[in-house]
Amino acid sequence: MARTIEELVAEVEALHGELDATASEADELGTAPPALVDSIRKLRVAMVKAPKEIGGDEIKMHEQLRFFEALSYSNPTAGWIGFNNAGAASSAAANLSDDGIETVFGSNPSPTMGGSAAATGTFEHTGGGVLATGTYRYISGVRHADWVFLPAVRGDDWPEARQMVVDPAGVTLDDNWDVMALKGTGSVNVHLNATFVPEHLTADPTLGRKRGGPMFTTSHQTFVAGENLGFTIGVCQRFMDEVAELATNKTRGNDGRLADRGAFQYELGKAQLTVNAARSYGIDALQSAHEACDAAGGLTTTEERAVGAMAAFCTESATSAISNLFHFAGAGALFNSSVIQRCFRDAHGSAQHHVVSNVVYDAYGRTMMEEYES
To answer: 5-14 and 34-43 are packed helices; what angle lies between their axes, rounded to 10 degrees?
Structure first.
């Protein structure tokens, strides 16, 4: 039975201690440690967006923000690889044949799955499947993935596209994840070299979904907006709470407690209001988009652009708000053991994701001008 968003958030909150305990280790290892992977499996994160027809929860766009906020608050690595896992698994679940569903989901109630939305590989047809070749960047959580979800194209006189669910044994991984933020996500490059993928583990995305509601017809940017923004809000809220807790004990020389300083109180209040506003705007916009999508069977280009612009704006607003507070935390926040520095880095890391690039403002502004000029 599909879980409600209230049940899902409660499950995450019940595992907060378990998730939080692995956050530092993930950063040190550059990938999720086994205990964190176990927690992700226990929560069945891969299934939160998957169609109900195969046992998924298929939570709504605005509910995705709430779920991934809760998960990222407890552990940023869990939130980031979790939403990549959920996005890849739900796309596979919506598009694979029944035989593919049986292979991937039949004996595994919640398969971990790394993936990419960028078709940077190519394929050729062969007996019983395809041979795929290419390099894919930023495959978060792939070191512990049961499957890897990758798109590819066949560029001859009749261009074709395929989504492929690849056995990790058929891929080669780089060791190139040396970064300042999102350290624990292990988002390394993945290489395919004439890798065989059986036909039942491929899908033609141009044929439309086989399962799931209208949400699965939206563009990639819209489809992942709720989960990506949920990550940012969760990490920023954890930053706020950690800084407020620090302020009750921190003193500097004869300056007194940080909590008693007017300048700090001003920035704390303003930053919390900004994070609250970003959360509320995100939930409201995503709920409206989901309802419009259900009513019409999809979203218009104008509606898609509005979702993309909202996600970028809310991400930018929340990360800017915590930036104004960071220097109040003092030198102690610079240590890798500090939750504050981890949240600060990972929040800004989320702002580098292509789905919240400020290029979406161009498209949204263009839509506005088209309306004004019509």
So the answer is: 150
What contacts 24+ positions apart, CB below 8 Å, involve 364-367?
Answer: 364/305, 364/306, 364/308, 364/309, 367/301, 367/302, 367/305, 367/306
Coil vs helix vs strand at 4: coil
Which regions of the chain does DSSP assign to beta strands (E)?
A: 113-115, 121-126, 129-139, 147-154, 160-166, 172-173, 188-198, 202-203
Backbone angles phi, psi at 336, to 5 degrees: -65, -20
Looking at 60, 86, 105, which one is the last position of a domain? 105
Report the domain count for the chain: 3
Q: Looking at the predicted structure, is the pLDDT value of residue 254 above 80?
A: no
Eight-state DSSP code of residue 2: P
**CATH number where 176 lies:** 2.40.110.10
Amino acid at 164: M
For 261-291, write each residue's pLDDT tens digit. Answer: 999 999 999 999 999 999 999 999 999 999 9
| Angular region, 16: left φ>0, alpha ψ -120 to 50, beta rest | alpha
- 221 lies in the same domain as 145: no
- Which amino acid makes up residue 197? V
344 neighbors 239 (Cβ within 8 angstroms): yes
Residues with Cβ < 8 Å from 92, sequence gap 6 or more?
100, 104, 113, 147, 149, 163, 165, 203
The domain spanning residue 312 has which CATH number?
1.20.140.10
